[in-house]
Amino acid sequence: MSATPTPHNAAVEGQIAKTVLMPGDPLRAKLLAEKYLENVEQFNIVRNMFGYTGTYQGHPISVMGSGMGMPSIGIYSYELFNFYDVDNIIRIGSAGGLADGVKLRDIVVGMGACTDSNYAAQFNLPGTYAPIADYDLLRRAVSGAEKLGYPVRVGNVLSSDTFYGADETALSRWASMGVLAVEMESAALYLNAVHAKKHALCLLTISDLPLAGESLSAEERQTSFTQMMEVALSLALPESQ
């Protein structure tokens, strides 16, 4: 649709793989590229939103930070889908567990993304749209986790515009409707994907339980996030592997 690079991404055509993993933190993107990928080339440093392309078990894959919140991932995912012809974006991030039975370290797969955001208003729809994951990516992620021996929870997540919310009862009310976890990006990613006729999935590691006042240490987060990253990386491989 548009010439590249963009104002936010220094990559040129062909530098970004068809599948992109997107952590919120650009330093986590750097860590993932250094730890898991071979033949790595950095394609973006604009605004320190690092992006890398390499190979995983011989297959091309890219990883790039998304920043925090729906406006940020909205920009980066839109450009990847529409300007760089990316087919699949898998968000890999942390979340606060809400529903009964969700525990620290759990991997949550966001089948749907409830939201308190007005992001969908731009599409001028005659009702309320329900942003959902790509089913094939979801199915493969659950299968990949099972093969790796990592249990996952699948269901609704909440994509919120606020980290520090004034309404202290809001999260408990979302939990009462079975929402598994709260994060800040997935709804925008899912909306951008379907509008571009592309594919998206959200994988989350439960790093804290805001209603119970519990959280992981930095070391515990690293171990748990490694499991989530391995599930995400499996989506870059042909299904036979």
Automatic annotation (TrEMBL):
CDD domains on file: PNP_EcPNPI-like
EC top class, as a word: transferase
Domain Nucleoside phosphorylase, residue spans: 19-234
GO cellular component: cytosol
NCBIfam families xref list: deoD, PRK05819.1
Domain of life: Bacteria
Keyword Transferase among record annotations: yes
Annotated EC: 2.4.2.3
Similarity-based family: Belongs to the PNP/UDP phosphorylase family.
GO BP terms, alphabetized: uridine catabolic process
Species in which this protein is naturally found: Lancefieldella rimae (strain ATCC 49626 / DSM 7090 / CCUG 31168 / NBRC 15546 / VPI D140H-11A)
Reactions the enzyme catalyzes: uridine + phosphate = alpha-D-ribose 1-phosphate + uracil
Record-linked InterPro entries: DeoD-type (IPR004402), Nucleoside_phosphorylase_CS (IPR018016), Nucleoside_phosphorylase_d (IPR000845), Nucleoside_phosphorylase_sf (IPR035994)
Name assigned to this protein: Uridine phosphorylase
A Gene Ontology molecular function term of the record: uridine phosphorylase activity
Keywords (A to Z) from UniProt: Glycosyltransferase, Transferase
